[in-house]
Write a structure and sequence with these properties.
The complex is a heterodimer of chains A (282) and B (155). Chain A is of the alpha+beta class and 282 residues long. Chain A contains 13 helices and 12 strands. Chain A folds into 3 domains: 7-50, 2-Layer Sandwich (Uridine Diphospho-n-acetylenolpyruvylglucosamine Reductase, domain 2), CATH 3.30.43; 59-169, Uridine Diphospho-n-acetylenolpyruvylglucosamine Reductase, domain 3 (2-Layer Sandwich), CATH 3.30.465; 175-280, CO dehydrogenase flavoprotein, C-terminal domain (Enolase-like, domain 1), CATH 3.30.390. In chain A, a hairpin with a 2-residue loop joins strand 10 (192-201) and strand 11 (204-213). Chain A starts with 6 loop residues before the first strand and ends with a helix. Chain B has a 5-stranded mixed sheet, covered by helices on one side. Chain B is globular and about 45 Å long. Chain A binds chain B through residues 1-8, 10, 31, 34-35, 37-39, 47-48, 50, 52, 75, 99-103, 105-106, 186-187, and chain B through 1, 17-21, 24, 40-42, 44, 47, 50, 53-56, 58-61, 63-64, 66, 107, 125-130.
């Protein structure tokens, strides 16, 4: 029972949802999949605005991109044939690691991005792709995912703004990707998430994007490692040497489940594995 | 507030509080097969089918299910005639204390409705949100396989 909830709304138009959220003046919250709101209730929230009737539940494949409605459930992504193949299965791999079957049927794409717990898996994969987030409030704006995660989404977004859609450009040419989640059990929150996107030309990294999750409160791109590896030979000894040096510099947050040293070790080993897997996937 | 919902094929109009959870409403209405476990979406004891998908009813707001269909363990069979999955769980020795069983059966039902002959991996994946502290899962997986064979014979 969410004792503080006194109001419930289910508008059928996006503009109505925004209007209702505005009248709440910070005391109303969006209700999407519901898993976060119910597991971690916020005593300040007195009303919920359900997005169920806004028809934001879709996966649309365009010529060179894919659009996913924010209310699409993680399990629906996993059942979609396009998602299974998209970006060499990167999104599928990340979604497959989110929670349990029972919860993947509830968790929405938008919720997994906006709630952004330290252990959210999907944003890590999206960070290495060309992803834009469509936000509606006073008008509509599209924010590249790298800029979205500069601040926590709950601070970045105004209390009446709604993430309605994500748009991901389909990578072209010779590229590979991989996503690795490390956790104590299959359904546990991750200790470390690593996502990698690589393009290789003449045994050198033509382009490389690496993102980490589970390390700090927000997922982030490992720009320093990417910079060192770009135009660098893909030779395993050299890659290992760079990772050795660069992973030492990464700031690792507290986690009561394990030590920072162990996470650092995982980060190095898993990044190496993810790069190797991504290259094999080309 | 009032919600109209189909529970086990019966249309119902229920009075619910805005902050009430589906598990609380179902148990109040007499569907005691929906078990209270962790109330955090981690154990699967409260699993029900919501529009044919298995979910933890402790993570669903009752107000939000207006117009939807819920199937609880009580909706799978008559009291005097358990369904094939339930019988298979009993016969395979997959029931010990029994607390997780309704959730396990609901998840199995959802799996077998989707995939008639699942692999071991698919069975484990489908039941990954249902915790059992007695059996060690071996008998539960056996029970699902037994149900698969029985359903094959039936069809």
């Amino acid at each position: 029972m969410l004792e503080n909830i006194k109001d419930y709304f289910r508008p059928s138009k996006l503009n109505d949802a925004i209007k209702i959220l505005k009248t709440g003046k910070g005391k109303y919250s969006i209700l999407a999949g519901g898993t976060s709101i119910i597991q971690y209730p916020n005593p300040k929230i007195e009303g919920l605005v359900s997005l169920r009737d806004l028809k934001l539940d879709y996966i649309k494949k365009n010529k060179d991109s894919i659009k996913i409605g924010a209310m699409t459930r993680i399990s629906e992504l996993l059942e979609d044939k396009v998602i299974k193949e998209f970006a060499k299965g990167l999104i599928y791999k990340a979604c497959d690691k989110i929670g349990s079957t029972l919860n993947r049927n509830l968790i929405t794409v938008g919720g997994n991005i906006v709630q952004t717990y330290k252990w959210s898996d999907l944003p890590v994969a999206l960070l290495v792709l060309d992803t834009k987030l469509k936000i509606s409030g006073n008008g509509t704006k599209k924010i590249p995912i790298e800029k979205f995660f500069i601040k926590h989404p709950k601070i970045l977004l105004k209390n009446y703004e709604i993430l309605t859609e994500i748009e991901i450009k389909e990578p072209k040419g010779n590229y590979g990707t991989d996503f690795i989640k490390f956790s104590y059990t299959n359904v546990d929150h991750c200790l470390v998430d690593v996502a990698v996107y690589v393009e290789v030309e003449k045994d050198k990294f033509k382009n490389i994007k690496i993102a980490f999750g589970g390390i700090m409160p927000l997922p982030f791109r490992a720009y320093s490692i990417e910079k060192k590896l770009k135009n660098h030979p893909t030779d395993s000894i050299l890659v290992n040497r760079i990772l050795d040096e660069e992973v030492k510099k990464i700031n690792i947050g507290e986690d009561f489940r394990t030590t920072k040293d162990y996470k650092r070790h995982l980060l190095k080993v898993l990044t190496y594995d993810a790069i190797a897997n991504a290259i094999s996937a080309i | 507030m009032k919600v109209k919902v189909k529970i086990n094929n019966e249309l119902k109009e229920l009075e619910v509080k805005e902050g009430e959870l589906l598990i609380e409403v179902l148990r109040r209405e007499g569907y005691k097969g929906v078990k209270k476990g962790c109330l955090k979406g981690e154990c699967g004891a409260c699993a029900v089918l919501l529009n044919n998908r298995p979910v933890n009813s402790c993570l669903v707001l009752a107000a939000d299910i207006d117009g939807m269909e819920v199937i609880t363990i009580e909706g799978l069979a008559k009291e005097t005639e358990p369904n094939i999955i339930q019988k298979s769980f009993v016969e395979a020795g997959a029931v010990q204390c029994g607390y997780c069983t309704p959730g396990m059966v609901i998840s199995t039902k959802a799996l077998l409705d989707r995939i008639s002959e699942p692999t071991d991996e698919e069975i484990k994946k489908a039941l990954d949100g249902n915790l059992c502290r007695c059996t060690g899962y071996v008998k539960i997986i056996d029970a699902v396989k037994l149900a698969v064979n029985r359903l094959k014979i039936k069809t």
